[in-house]
Amino acid sequence: MNYRVQPTAQVDESAEIGDGTSVWELAQIREGARLGEACVVGRGAYVGTGVQIGNNVKIQNYALVYEPAELGDGVFIGPAVVLTNDHNPRSVDPAGRQKRGGDWEAVGVSIAAGASVGARSVCVAPVRIGQWAMVAAGAVVTRDVPDFALVMGVPARQVGWVGHSGVKLVEHADEAGMWECPQTGKVYVERAGVLSER
Fold first, then answer.
1. Which residues pair with 58 in a beta bridge?
2. What is the C-alpha separation between 133 and 168, in angstroms, rounded?
3. I need a surface site. Which of 84, 125, 135, 154 has the fewest CB within 10 A?
4. Could you give the C-alpha distances from 198 to 185, 188, 190, in angstroms and in order?
5. What is the pLDDT of residues 59-88, one digit of tens each?
6. CB–CB of 159/173 below 8 Å?
7. Looking at residue 176, what is its pLDDT?
8. Which of 77, 99, 97 is nearest to 89 (CA)?
9. In sequence order, what DSSP letters do the residues of 35-53 get, joined into one string?
10. Other residues' Cβ atoms within 10 Å of the Cβ of residue 19
């Protein structure tokens, strides 16, 4: 066993935990969940049944990652983030009977490699967060977020672009459709509302 689980955490025996991963106090990892290598699951975080998580993912304290979420490599989930899984949530069916697992179809949140979801934000499934995108703290995401997009607000709206460093890009002074990271100097190209690496 090359991973660390604190004694107060609950990790189902069918969950797969990658080498170098740490699961902190009061966290819960459900049946069939898969966590890659070198992940960190913070205090009180919840990872639902069958959730798929890549390598080097950080899930901060009290975040709730409900199935069937999928998180790519290097994803950051801030404190108290919620990834929902029911587009039309109800406790009971139309006849007043309490709903059970088979009474509804779970829909998931998919987060691509390198993306960050800020503290106390909510992603309302089904949505996809693109690679290296950034969701600002407190945002409510109700539609897909493009690669490298910076979104904020309720509901979340795109307010710019971010690069690999997470710093907001600035328009390139000499060329239209070109964006530059003020921290690294890396240049990105925007075409028809899609940003890509140059």
1. 40, 76
2. 11
3. 154
4. 12, 5, 10
5. 999 999 999 999 999 999 999 999 999 988
6. no
7. 83
8. 99
9. E-TT-EE-TT-EE-TT-EE
10. 12
Sorted by sequence, the CB contacts under 8 Å of residue 101 that are 6+ apart come out as: none
Q: Are residues 196 and 152 in the same domain?
A: no
Task: Give the neighbor-by-neighbor strand order of the sheet with 28-29.
Answer: 10-11, 28-29, 46-47, 64-65, 82-83, 122-123, 140-141
Q: How far is CA 85 from the centre of its chain?
A: 13
Type of residue numbered 194: V
Structure tokens at 121: 């934000």
State the pLDDT at residue 88. Answer: 86
Round to whole Å and give the CA distance between 6 and 94.
Answer: 42
| pTM as predicted | 0.95
Find the radius of gyration of the CA atoms of the chain.
Answer: 18
**Are 64 and 97 in a shared domain?**
yes
The predicted pLDDT at position 55 comes to: 98
Distance CA 23, CA 9 (A): 7
Provide the β-strand partners of residue 29.
Answer: 11, 47
Residues 100 and 193 in one domain: no
Domain that holds residue 167: 163-198
Check: CB of residue 154 under 8 Å from CB of residue 120. no
Give the pLDDT confidence of 26-51 residue by residue, as tens digits.
999 999 999 999 999 999 999 999 99
Low-confidence ranges of the chain (pLDDT < 70): 1
